[in-house]
Amino acid sequence: MRVVLADDSTLLREGLVRLLTEEDHEVTAAVADAAELMTVLERAPAEQRPDVVVVDVRMPPTHTDEGLRAAVQIRERWPDVGVLVLSQYVERRYATELLTEDSEGVGYLLKDRVVQVDEFLDALERVGSGKAAFDSEVVRVLFSRSSRTDPLNSLTAREREVLAQMAEGHTNAAIAGRLHISQSAVEKHTNAIFDKLGLAGTSGYSRRVLAVLRYLGT
Where in the numbering of this chain does the HTH luxR-type domain appear (predicted)? Predict the structure, then answer.
């Protein structure tokens, strides 16, 4: 895949360049801030745009949410470009906006929780192929609401487990294996979840993530 990296940490950026190159991916640009990232994409001919952009949340000049705001713009302007957020932080507002626009080809991983290189590479490939890849802690933070208004209170414990797996981007078959239940049971729980939360039926597991995050977004 063609990949563009955006992270203000020179050490991490160069390390990712080396890793991806060794894995036969093409790193077409590695930049240190969101402005440079947008310039790279704007100047790239359509046939040479990256398959995936890997972007940090906090970058110069203010080190707040520049990267995530750039990610939202990328999804709006170039929906065929996958976006994998790789950060130490979960920024709720723009993370929700990013995911509710269209979660196909979107991922969000926390740097401190990526303990194996293969985890990162797997997430990158999933995003590049139009799928979703979410760290469970990111999902937990985005789902967190006060108990008074939390729509998840209507779900059973098993339905909560299935919903958490759905939000991470797993298929029904994968959920069945991870929870040690049948696939038909997963389908039953999935239907119950959408019925209880009042969500319209959707197809494709990343679309289910989109629907859930849209409903629960802040």
Answer: 148-213
> What percent of the chain is predicted at pLDDT more than 70?
82
Q: Residue 26's CB: how many other CB atoms inside 10 A?
A: 12
Cα distance between residue 200 and residue 191, in whole Å: 10
Do 105 and 7 meet the contact criterion of CB atoms below 8 Å apart? no
Mean pLDDT of the region 127-149: 74
Is residue 215's pLDDT more than 50? no
pLDDT of 63 reads: 86
Which stretch of DSSP H or E encloses residue 157? helix 157-167
Domain ranges of the chain: 2-143, 151-216
Determine the 3-state secondary structure of 7 from DSSP: coil
Decide: 50 and 3 in contact? Cβ < 8 Å. Answer: yes
Look up the CATH architecture of domain 2-143.
3-Layer(aba) Sandwich (3.40)
Q: What is the pLDDT of residue 49?
A: 95
Q: Residue 29 and residue 45: Cα distance in Å, rounded?
A: 14
Q: Is 30 helix (H, G, I), strand (E, B) or coil?
A: strand
